[in-house]
Structure formats: C-alpha cells, structure tokens
Amino acid sequence: MIRVLILTILINEILGNAVSFNQPKFCPTVKWNSKGELFTATETSRSLPLILFIDTNNTIYVNSGKEDVISVWYKDHSHPKSISYLSKVEISSIFVIDNGDIYIAYLNNTISKWIASTDSFVHVMNGESICADLFIDVNNNLYCSMAWEDVVIKRSLYKDKETDIVIVAGTGSGGSAAYQLSSPIGIFVDTNLDLYVADRHNDRIQLFHSGERNATTVAGQGSLDFTISLLKPWSIVLDHEKYLFILDYGNGRIVRSGPHGFQCLLGCIAKEIKEYRLYDPSRLSFDVNGNLFVCDANGRRIQRFTLQKDSCEKSEYRISARKRCIVSDFCGDMLIP
Ligand SMILES: *[C@@H]1O[C@H](CO)[C@@H](O)[C@H](O)[C@H]1NC(C)=O
Ligand SMILES: *[C@@H]1O[C@H](CO)[C@@H](O)[C@H](O)[C@H]1NC(C)=O
Ligand SMILES: *[C@@H]1O[C@H](CO)[C@@H](O)[C@H](O)[C@H]1NC(C)=O
C-alpha cells in the first residue's frame, strides 16, 4: 500500500498534475479483467442519468444513493459521504476541479458549483438547455454539450458575466456534415484544447481541433480509418497518450484505440453473463491505479474492471525500457522498482 502511494506521488510529480482526473499511461500490452466487479448498485430511478467522476486523489463521486445526493468515496473508505444538493431538480453531469470543488449541471438548465472548503453552493450560469455533459479544460473554460440543441458551448470561468457563452461545435440544427452534430453527449477536451464529442445520433466520434468548426471523424460512421462501427456512442475518454476509450452505448461495450488500431475492450464476450456484460455503458473513469470504472446505465450499477497487473510483464518495454517504464508508464507491477 505504502509503495503504491509513494509511486503514485512519484508519477504525479513527474507527469505534473494539470488535470483533476486520472489519465494513465498504459503499456502497449495492457489488459483489464473482462469480468466486472460491482462497485455500487444505484438506487436512482431508471430515467435519471448516472454520474461518475474519479479525481486524482482517488475520490469517487457517484449519484447512486437517494435522489438528491452525490455519494463521495474518499480514498480507502468503504462508506461514502453524502453531499446533498437539496434540490427537487435532478442532475445530469458533474465535473470536479483540482481543489475539490464540484460543478453540477441540473436538469433545469442551471449550473452551480459546490465549494468544498465551505460546503456551500454558488450559482454559475443558466443555459438555454440541459447540459448533457460538462467539462472544464486546463485554461478554466467550461464546456457543456446541449444534446437537444445539437451544439457544444463554452464559457470562460474567469469572467463573471454570462455573456461570453460561445458555440464551439455544431450549428443548432442537427445533421451529419463535418460542422454539424446530432444529439451530442459526452465531451472531452485535451490539453491542446482539442474537443472530442460523442456525436450520438451520428454514430461517430468527432474531433474539433481547437478553434475549428469542421470536425474530423476519429471513430465510427464516416471515419477515415473505418474499422469498427459504433451505435449511439455516449461518451469518450482519452488516456495519457490520447488513445480513445469509447462508451459504445448501443452495442453495450467499450471500444478502445491503441497502437494496433481499434479493439473491443469490455462487454465483448460472454454477453449472457451479468458480470461480463454491460447494459448501456454511459460513462467511464480511470482510478489512480488504472482500473476502469463504468456507469452501466441500464444495469443501474457502477462496475469496476481491474487492470491485470501482469499484463505488461512480457512486453518488450519491460526489458528494454524498464527504467523509463518505472518513471513514466503505467505498467502494473513494473511500477515497483
Ligand atoms: C434550478 O435548480 C437549482 C437547484 O435547485 C436552483 O438553484 C436554480 O435556481 C434552479 N434554476 C431555475 C432557473 O429554476
Ligand atoms: C487532493 O488532496 C489535496 C490534499 O488534501 C487537496 O489539496 C486537493 O485539492 C485534492 N484534489 C482534489 C481534486 O480534490
Ligand atoms: C467546412 O466544411 C464545409 C463543407 O462541409 C465547407 O463549405 C467550409 O468551407 C468548411 N470550413 C472550413 C473553415 O474549412
């Protein structure tokens, strides 16, 4: 445990923690157990979205409990603490920033912030529509995907005024051209400020390079390197090397890109067995150890898929670049000097 802690600190120091969530660097042969373990079952009603966020302190945020509560598991605590947002209005998405404050999008188009140090809420903005997903980039810009309006909007959090809201993707009329979106949900902005969008009804993942309104399709329908089809992808997460992890909601699986192209990662085998199956995966987060946590929307559960610690052992990496791997790669056992 202590070794893991020291190594985690070491890795964080070396990589520099620009972001508040975990973006591990995996070795090329990395594998996860395809059998999931139940992290928590959820009591929220079926019609509500499930939220999930894991920060760099390994704190896990889920709306699993009673309907007006975010359950927060601090590192190594088996029982969650509850943050009550005391509202009749349910939430669609959260984003935790590096000081532990939580941005919360409500289904009444409002965004608030919960301030960790004072356990209080402040109003952030009123939108035109529901934010299906929230993201805050390294420059402190807030992004919100408005699935019903077919756009992604952005505003700087440095400014008090709400007047600086701009559309950064989509036009407001759904469609499949390079400049259009159709029911966008999951969004992810990398450190170059490039925006990835799960363009749900177009069955594709769109990449809008910073400042550009025409996107490149990087996965799914219409992509240049079309090797895997997606059905209503819900969200998209990037690892440290910008490989994609796609929540392929309609196919009940998680697809990833890697050094050898796309592959089905989870929900691919033994579809008849509950532990292997995903019933509409909607969100994904890595914990600090590289394990995958998945919101299984229709299973009403959060599943954990553990990293196979020995999956990197045979990789050439271990022999040829052991030292490099210790300091900068996520290679399970290899991390232990
Ligand atoms: C939406 O709900 C939040 C949380 O209850 C509340 O603070 C906010 O005022 C509401 N916004 C509107 C426009 O009703
Ligand atoms: C992680 O913990 C440190 C030390 O308690 C704190 O300063 C930091 O804000 C925490 N980060 C997050 C994302 O909560
Ligand atoms: C975006 O694509 C459209 C056609 O789909 C084209 O007319 C337009 O010039 C492009 N814009 C830029 C800035 O490339």
TrEMBL record:
It comes from the Eukaryota. NHL repeats lie at residues 172-211. Residues 1-16 form the signal peptide. Gene3D superfamilies: TolB, C-terminal domain (2.120.10.30). CDD domains: NHL (cd05819). One of its GO terms (cellular component) is extracellular region. Keywords: Glycoprotein, Repeat, Signal. PROSITE patterns: NHL. This is Uncharacterized protein. It comes from Adineta ricciae.
